[in-house]
Amino acid sequence: MSQSLTQTRYTISEVEARTGLTQHTLRWYERIGLMPHVDRSHSGQRRFTDKDLGWLAFVGKLRATGMSVADMVRYAELVREGEHTVDERRALLEHTRREVRARLAELTDALGVLDRKIEMYAMNTNTGKAQS
Amino acid sequence: MSQSLTQTRYTISEVEARTGLTQHTLRWYERIGLMPHVDRSHSGQRRFTDKDLGWLAFVGKLRATGMSVADMVRYAELVREGEHTVDERRALLEHTRREVRARLAELTDALGVLDRKIEMYAMNTNTGKAQS
DNA sequence: TACTTGCTTGGAGTGCACTCCAGGGTTTTA
DNA sequence: TAAAACCCTGGAGTGCACTCCAAGCAAGTA
C-alpha cells in the first residue's frame, strides 16, 4: 500500500498554469470546502499533489455540466464523509445528468433556430427581401 | 398590405402567463432596449401584440443559446436600425452559433464523465470497492 | 544584504441577470 | 360606490461565482 516517497508537489502558481483556474479561485475553492484539505509547506504555503490536480479536473467537469458551486461543495462533503454516502453521491450525479440532458436538448433546439435564422439572412443577402 | 383591425392585445400579466417571464423581467427588457417599443393603452398600460410575443419567443431562444443580454440588446438595436445591418446581425448570430457548438461539445464530454462516474458508483454498490 | 517576486489571510468589490420595493394611478368586481 | 386586483415608474436589493485588495511574511537572486 506504500506510495513513492518523491511525490510531486505543486505551488499555487503551478496549479494556476496547469488548470487555468486563478490563484484566487483556487484559494476560494478551498475556503468554501470544495477541495480536500491541501498540504502545506513548513511555512504554510500550499503544496498541491497530483491527486489534487485530479480532483480539480473532475470539479472542472462538474462545472462544465452547469452544476452549482453549492452542489459541488455538497458532493465534496459527501466524499469526505466516506463510503456510506455513495448512494447520495450517485443520486446527486444522476440529478445533474438529467439536467445536462435537458440542457443539451434545449441547446440543440436553439441551435436549430439559429441555423434557420442565419440561413434566412444568407437568402436575404441575395434577394433583398425584408425580415426581422 | 392592411392588417386585421381587431388585433389581439395582451396585458402584461397575460404575457407573463404565456411566456413564463415575470412582469418585472418584461418591464426590464423594455427598459434596457431588448423590446421594440410596446404599445400603450390610453392610460399608459402596456398592450402587447402577437408580434411582441413572437419577438419574445425568439429572444427566449437566444437566451437558451447562452447569449448575453448585452449581445441580445445589440441584436435588437440592429433590427431597429433597419436592413443595412443584416450583415452585422448575421455575424452576431454566427458568432453565437460557434459558441453554442463549443458548449454542446463541452456538455457532451462532461455528460460522458458523469455517465462513467455513475456507472462506477453502480458497480461500487454491488462490490463494495472504494473510490472517490 | 537588498531587492524582487511569490504566497498568506480576511474581507471587500464586481458583473451579470434579474427581482423587488415604495408610492401612486387604473380597472374590474361586488 | 367601495373594495380588490392590476399596472405604472425609478431605483434599490439579491444571489451567484468569482475577483481583487491591503498588509504582511517567505523565498529566490544579484
TrEMBL record, chains A, B:
SUPFAM superfamilies: Putative DNA-binding domain
Keyword terms: DNA-binding
The organism's place on the tree of life at top rank: Bacteria
GO molecular function: DNA binding; DNA-binding transcription factor activity
InterPro entries reported for this sequence: DNA-bd_dom_put_sf, MerR-type_HTH_dom, MerR_fam
PANTHER family: HTH-TYPE TRANSCRIPTIONAL REGULATOR ADHR (PTHR30204:SF98), REDOX-CYCLING DRUG-SENSING TRANSCRIPTIONAL ACTIVATOR SOXR (PTHR30204)
Protein name: HTH-type transcriptional regulator AdhR
Organism: Streptomyces lavendulae subsp. lavendulae
